[in-house]
UniProtKB/TrEMBL annotation:
PROSITE patterns: CYT_DCMP_DEAMINASES_1 (PS00903), CYT_DCMP_DEAMINASES_2 (PS51747). One of its GO terms (biological process) is tRNA wobble adenosine to inosine editing. Its cofactor is Zn(2+). PANTHER family: CYTOSINE DEAMINASE FAMILY MEMBER, TRNA-SPECIFIC ADENOSINE DEAMINASE. Keywords: Hydrolase, Metal-binding, tRNA processing, Zinc. The active site is at 48 (proton donor). One of its GO terms (molecular function) is tRNA-specific adenosine-34 deaminase activity. Homodimer. InterPro entries: APOBEC/CMP_deaminase_Zn-bd (IPR016192), CMP_dCMP_dom (IPR002125), Cytidine_deaminase-like (IPR016193), MafB19-deam (IPR058535), tRNA_aden_deaminase (IPR028883). This is tRNA-specific adenosine deaminase. Catalyzes the deamination of adenosine to inosine at the wobble position 34 of tRNA(Arg2).
Amino acid sequence: MKLAIAEAKKAEQLGEVPIGAVIVKNNEVISSAYNLRETTQNAVTHAELLAIEKACEVIGSWRLEETTLYVTLEPCPMCSGAILLSRVDRVVYGAADPKAGCAGTLMNLLDDDRFNHRCDVVPGVLADECGMMLTNFFRSLRRKKKEQKQRPNE
């Protein structure tokens, strides 16, 4: 998870929402990524999707069996779908996402018997650190927007 946090900090340096993801197979990191949605202006450039894409390239297959995905924020519906379809075995996440979390908070797409693949989910790993990174980012963003409104002629 520490590596995913390091990835999230890279996103934050770019003004992106600080979310990072790392995929591990056989105790070896095979891919890492961070959110790039604002940079790319592309709705699908979430950290998890970018990490999955890189891992598929490394392995040479769309099947990411026997892998673990570490991510600083609970996966959204889109990312949860990609995790299932790429056959990731285990997801370890930091902060819960009360607005879009689909690994146990709003629903658990990753462990739904109706799908032909399910993931083990380990929630709340370094949750405070992951959550504070997001809280501080959004607090800073709101403060900057408020300051801009107070100085509209600049």
